[in-house]
What we know:
Strand order of the largest sheet: 1-2-5
Strand content: 5-15%
CATH topology: hpI Integrase, Chain A
CATH superfamily: Intergrase catalytic core
CATH architecture: Orthogonal Bundle
CATH class: Mainly Alpha
Amino acid sequence: xxxFKVFAQVLRAPNALESGFASLFRxxxxxxxxxEERRIADHTAxxxxxxxxxxxxxxxxxxxxxxDDPLYAAYVFILVLGLRRGEVLGLAWDCVxxxxxxxxxxxxxxxxxxxxxHRETTKTEDSTASLPLFGLCVSALRHRQRVQEEARKAxxxxxxxxxxxxxxxxxTPIEPRNFNRAFENHCRHAGVPRIRVHDTRHTWASLxxxxxxxxxxxxxxxPAFADLDDHGRLHPDPKPRDPQxxxxxx
Length: 250
């Protein structure tokens, strides 16, 4: 074929030259670039899945019970009561009343710089009101009492006394970052989508409805207000929120 005929074909199909070069260099594309694209796509999909269904939350908690995880009650509080990580890790036994089936959130555990601080929460009407403990929460707390007492006996002289409900094997506070790592590890082994610890708080309305908790009782949990409809009923399964945390338009 003459050079003139080659140029004539290119002019008749202007995209042919571009596609030809694309196919030529496709085989030279580094494998690392393809892996990076897949990693970004997987990460984007995970970020989009920010709300568990009731079944996924149930599978997660069942996995924790099956392995007798010492922090099982902490995850129950986050999922069922909508507590924040710092509020759970900062919960003290003197703020828990098992007989009256209620607790108070007055302190939180946070890391500021190089310091792990156990400090008072801001005094508001919601923070001074008690939260109800449902049957699942009470049984989880009794499990936590047993696990902590066993850990104290096993640690012996190495045990660090405190009034914290959730502690390490030696009685020290739980490092928030370690709590996040443990959560991600449990997500993987439970076979549920990996979401942030904070995002589990969006599941409480579904779980309260599944537990048949009366709306009047659920209204004692401040975050639950966001998941009550105009008639004071709990949404059976909250719709996924956008990145700003709002519900899509009906």
